[in-house]
Amino acid sequence: MDAAQYPDTNAPSVSPAPVVGDLAYDTVRDRYGVVMERTPGQVHLRPKGGGREWAARPEHVELARAGEALSPQVAEANARSRGELL
């Protein structure tokens, strides 16, 4: 049997790089944002609900998973119900 026929199950999984419009996670700043632009060496992100854009290095930006994308919205809704946000 040829080893090329069988994937290495111990190899780390690599998620696809986020593209413009994707919700992504900045691992350094521990923040989620929408990818606004990709330039060599930088990914420009903006908070999902709007706000100030920031730049991150591509190796520090991951595509957000569905559950992760929902967490900031749930936290905001909870804060709003407690009267912390208007």
Instruction: Give the C-level CATH assignment.
Output: Mainly Beta
Helix amount: 10-25%
Order of secondary-structure elements: EEEEEH
User: Looking across the biggest beta sheet, what order are the strands in?
Assistant: 4-3-2-1-5
Radius of gyration, CA atoms, in whole angstroms: 17 Å
Oligomer type: single chain
Overall geometry? globular
CATH fold category name: SH3 type barrels
Overall SS class: alpha+beta
Task: Tell me what the CATH architecture is.
Answer: Roll
Question: What characteristics describe this protein?
Answer:
86 residues; alpha+beta; SH3 type barrels; 1 helix; globular
Q: How would you characterize the overall build of this protein?
A:
This protein is of the alpha+beta class and 86 residues long. The chain contains one helix and five strands. The protein has one domain: Roll (SH3 type barrels). Helix content is 19%, strand content 28%. Strands 4-3-2-1-5 form a five-stranded antiparallel sheet, with no helix packed on it. Strand 3 (42-46) and strand 4 form a beta hairpin.
